[in-house]
């Protein structure tokens, strides 16, 4: 077997999201509104790993300042359509990604033909004013297409994900061990009973898997304690003594491993709280022809738990490495795997029954998808984002913003400034831009114009705070107003690239449905080199 | 924090600068907003309006590594106004680099990374001068490193980082004007870190060795006798079977036919033991110790490094003090903190290290202990008695190795008394460590 060129090229990323993630990426169609420095950096990090296609919508003509901060332009690009110019340079990065450009003013396009954007699997905006943004967000929300809103101003970066719901099965948790030590299933119990510690020679005794050791002594403990597990720390210590008493010498590493896992063994196996919450969701109650695969399988697993699962999720079936000889280890591994298979098979039957009840064929959901869901059942995630309407108009997070703003180190201040800047733009058709900050011993002074600039932006900040019923004006806001005026909507290459990395990573998570995306806003502060996430 | 002296008087010719500016007016207008205006968070010593002279014309920056981080760093520096850049890298371009190292094309496979990267940047950003060196950082001397105001590292090797860190700390030699700031970035999958190291003033790379995740190793007896995981079978193929069956050929993990052989051999063993999961890809991952890498994380970390470099050189904002950690697999999270200097750091500390060891420990076991200790991790330690200069064990030259080899079996206590001091050096690292021994 010699692996193909494509697998070689993508090797370092396939180790993160496997072939299934790569296929999802390769079928995704991403749209970028405005080919700004930040926009191009986002696309660069999506074209390189092989996104299916990208389309740049931009009505602007390339200027010298664009060439200065964008790697995907040269001085010869000046005067040409920015959409086309950046698309051509981005296309050079990877022939697998197909690049398209549309030299049209996105604001007009959103106004006149918003359905244009429904052809994409994800839409990213940079540098888009508030009014068209709200309209685009509405259109995409109704079509359940993810929207990512991105802004960079000076040293500050902001981005927001807008999407009704995102479900993830392959969350890639770091530790997926589910050994059922407190509630061994019959096949596991039978296997443990085949061991007679007394008759083992010293070599075999030192190679009994620690899972067997623990189960053996837990059984003994339960017999002496009305079927209960050790629950208090005193009892756990007593139980450790019991395990220790079976040890023949200090070199038995399997006993070390057993003792180190006592705490875990005594913890009750149960459905994690966040999974119970997912089961309580109305999407899990009412399965219809509209239901997504995720919810259909979730319902089947819920029913499994309350029936043949005896209150537990399907077993994942993974066994960690432990001190053991090969045959014992492999035999034990097979017992866990067999049980996992049985659980999956039970869930599969339930999935097929549900599909049948809504008039779908059994093949509608593949066996692989059911397998994967069962193996990750303890780690599934459902993220419900807030809409932009809720954030901006119907239910702004007034109380939270007011509370967060009191901390001078909190990055929420940049959110307030960005919103104020957008208001400034609405009425002036440009962003604040002036040298408003001077030191006392500076020879220069603040010009009248600059003073006006500062005061105008501050008025918008005040208005916002009033709308949010925030009565005490945090003093540290003034400095941030100065900094925004200083930045003058400049886009620094470093911040653009940093945001490009962060946004592309979230896009990859959304498109592959692997790993857990952020919810719902991230703000990066390149002055302090800190970032924060907020649910706004 | 102490003031850092930045060397700003390096004259460099700027041929064609004027012409480019004419061709591309307003090119730096984004940068000049920041550089021409005072800001409330900038250091009071920041002088607006001097951007061009401090940044654009004179500053010399060295970039170590032209891989995933290096390509990003070079692009960011060129777009941030840096005009004098040198890049060092010893590698050549591989097909598996192309998913993130965006200065390279399929036709560049096999060519030196440093050369292709430098030429690409100069082609795209015409008035930037990027020189390159295709070779090892260890080939260069102190004067070479003193020639740069700032050094940015985008490396995937711990050893190379330790070397450059120790070299820059040793360079200072008590004279603050010899301080050269090191900005270091690293990534692994969706995680990474960026940090600013001001040699002798802030914590250094060596101070934080214990933060590295421990490399996964498998005991040789498991590999030989009780394999359980597919990884055990692969290690068996490469560590035990290759030397046995193919001792005449040197194993090259970049050679597909070699990986193929290891894969087939591991697969055979796995079948014999009923172990599942040996694949070609896993074989390659285990023997090459492959670390997953994507464009996104490299972009984040490289940009953070260059943002700090820009702030350090221009003073336009305060710089990072001194560590930012990044995690992106579950939500998006950064943690920015001041990593503390370790008083007994073997590179930048001035306190001696005290160690308690058993009276029974042999010289050989003590050496193994030094190699495994998470906060020291020496590669090839050589030991001498600090007071008498008597050699306890030297790894090289061969003459001394041979002469001191019999000592390996001796107990340490026979050569080093209670509270005596040992000097430890390492041929692979420019460091020397004083250890006071006490016995328990």
TrEMBL record, chain A:
One GO cellular component term: cytoplasm
Pfam family, one: ThiF
One GO biological process term: protein neddylation
Domain THIF-type NAD/FAD binding fold: residue ranges: 10-529
Residue ranges of coiled coil: none
Annotated metabolic or biological route of this protein: Protein modification; protein neddylation
Record-linked InterPro entries: APP-BP1, ThiF/MoeB/HesA, ThiF_NAD_FAD-bd, Ubiquitin-activating_enz
Gene Ontology MF terms in the entry: NEDD8 activating enzyme activity
Family from the record: Belongs to the ubiquitin-activating E1 family. ULA1 subfamily.
UniProt protein name: NEDD8-activating enzyme E1 regulatory subunit
Biological source species: Rhizophagus irregularis (strain DAOM 197198w)
Automatic annotation (TrEMBL), chain B:
SUPFAM superfamilies: Activating enzymes of the ubiquitin-like proteins (SSF69572)
One Gene Ontology cellular component annotation held by this UniProt entry: nucleus
Organism: Rhizophagus irregularis (strain DAOM 197198w)
E2 binding domain span: 355-440
Pathway the protein contributes to: Protein modification; protein neddylation
Protein's UniProt keywords contain ATP-binding: yes
Record Pfam families: E2_bind (PF08825), ThiF (PF00899)
Keywords, sorted A to Z: ATP-binding, Ligase, Nucleotide-binding, Ubl conjugation pathway
Name of the protein in question: NEDD8-activating enzyme E1 catalytic subunit
EC code(s) of this entry: 6.2.1.64
Family stated for the protein in its record: Belongs to the ubiquitin-activating E1 family. UBA3 subfamily.
Top-tier EC class: ligase
Region of interest called Disordered, as start-end residue ranges on this chain: 1-21
GO molecular function ontology, one term from the record: ATP binding
GO BP terms in the entry: protein neddylation
Function: Catalytic subunit of the dimeric E1 enzyme, which activates NEDD8.
Family matches, as InterPro entries: E2-binding, ThiF/MoeB/HesA, ThiF_NAD_FAD-bd, Ub_act_enz_dom_a_sf, Uba3_N, Ubiquitin-activating_enz, UBQ-activ_enz_E1_Cys_AS
Active-site residues annotated for this sequence: 221
Biased composition range(s): Polar residues: 1-11
The reaction(s) this protein catalyses: ATP + [NEDD8 protein] + [E1 NEDD8-activating enzyme]-L-cysteine = AMP + diphosphate + [E1 NEDD8-activating enzyme]-S-[NEDD8 protein]-yl-L-cysteine
